[in-house]
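It is worth pausing here to work through a concrete case rather than discussing structure prediction in the abstract. The textbook approach is simple: state the sequence, then state the predicted structure, then interpret. We follow exactly that order.
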Amino acid sequence: MRLIPCAAAACLVLALPAAAHADIVKLTNGRIMNVEMAHFDGDMVILDMRGGGEIRAPRNMIAELLPDEVPYARSVAIEALAASPMATAAPMSVDAIRALVRRIAAKVGVDERLAHAVVKVESNYQMLAVSSRGAMGLMQIMPATARQYGVVDPFNPEQNIEAGVRLLKDLQSRYGRDTRRVLAAYNAGEGAVTKYGGVPPYRETQMYVSKIMTMLLR
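Step two, the predicted structure:
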C-alpha cells in the first residue's frame, strides 16, 4: 500500500488538488477517520462521511490522506502475516491470551469482560486469524487501526490486544456508557453509527452486538 508521506499538514495540502478521494484521513492528533471525500475550501476542509453528513474543520488538522484501503486490506494483512515472527512461533494457549487480555484491559482502563468478549467473538482466540476484509489477529484490527495505534506487528498478541482495547477505550470516550454503540462502531465504524443514530441495520453488526451483550449479561 502506498501512503502519502508528509512532514506537516501544510505540505500535504499544497501537494493535493482542491478535492481528493480519500477514504482514510489521518488527523494531526493521530485519529484516523474513514470518509468518502475531502473537499478543501480556503482554510477549511469538508469531510463527507461514509455514513452521511459532513464535518468541517481547519485544513491544517489533516496530516495525511490515504488511498482507499478496502481493496488492499486483505493483501496487506497477508503480507503482515508472512512477515510476522508469530507465523512460525508456537501458538499461545487460550489461558495465556486471557491473562494478557486481563493485564492490558486493566492497564488501559477497559472492563476485562468486554475485552474478553470482543476477542472471543472476533477471533475465538486465534492469534493468526485473517478475515476476508483484512482484519487481523486476536481483536481483528484493520490496517488503519494498526497505524493509528502504532502497531508494528499486528499478529503479535500484545500489540494486537493493546490496539483493540485502546480502540474500545476511545469509543467509550465518545459514546460513554452506551456499550451497544461502542460495539457497533468497533464492528461497522463510527460513520455507520452516526448515520443510523445507533446500531446500524446490518445483520452482521446486529448479531455481533447481540452476541457480545449476551455474554456481558451472563
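Step three, interpretation. The longest strand covers residues 32-41. The domain at 70-175 is CATH 1.10.530.10 (Lysozyme).
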